[in-house]
Design brief:
By secondary structure, this protein is mainly α. It is built from 7 helices and no strands. It is globular and about 50 Å long. The relative contact order is 0.15.
């Protein structure tokens, strides 16, 4: 591997692991979901919905590229340390949580449930190639969670 390739691999690894969170032992996906929830609440909460959607779409696309690069380097379909997918999925689940801490908490729990148990078509989407499978299952889990958060919001608030 050349120096340029090594340097490029480090950049993609930094992105895929969300600044190294994916390297935390045991439950890196949960740690990244916590981080994503905190970022969504404290940094993105006051940004318009349209801009938040654009931000998560951009991160999703970068995540596809980073995941694909890491898949090629490690020769693994979905290495455990890739957590940018959890970052995006968790963030999407919270798009309509507004500033309500209860909805952020529920969004976190509901997203983790869908991410772990993977009801249809979440598990099926993991078969997609070129980094899309890594990212898409969490995006769908985030969309499922977001719908439930919207329903809860309509019923309670």
């Amino acid at each position: 591997m050349s120096f340029k390739q090594l340097k490029e691999a480090k950049v993609w690894a930094l992105i895929a692991t969300v600044l190294g969170i994916g390297m935390i032992p045991l439950i890196p996906g949960t740690y990244c979901s916590i981080f994503s929830t905190l970022v969504a609440y404290f940094l993105l909460n006051n940004i318009s919905l349209v801009y938040r959607i654009i931000i998560y779409l951009f991160i999703f696309l970068i995540g596809v590229l980073a995941s694909h690069k890491i898949q090629k380097l490690t020769k693994q379909e979905d290495p455990r340390f890739i957590v940018i997918d959890e970052y995006v999925g968790q963030g999407v689940s919270l798009l309509f949580a507004d500033d309500r801490i209860l909805l952020y908490f529920l969004g976190f729990i509901i997203f983790r449930f869908f991410d772990i148990f993977k009801p249809f078509p979440i598990a099926h989407s993991e078969r997609l190639k070129y980094g899309f499978g890594v990212m898409m299952d969490d995006l769908i889990a985030g969309l499922y969670s977001m719908i439930i958060i919207i329903v809860i919001k309509l019923l309670i608030y």
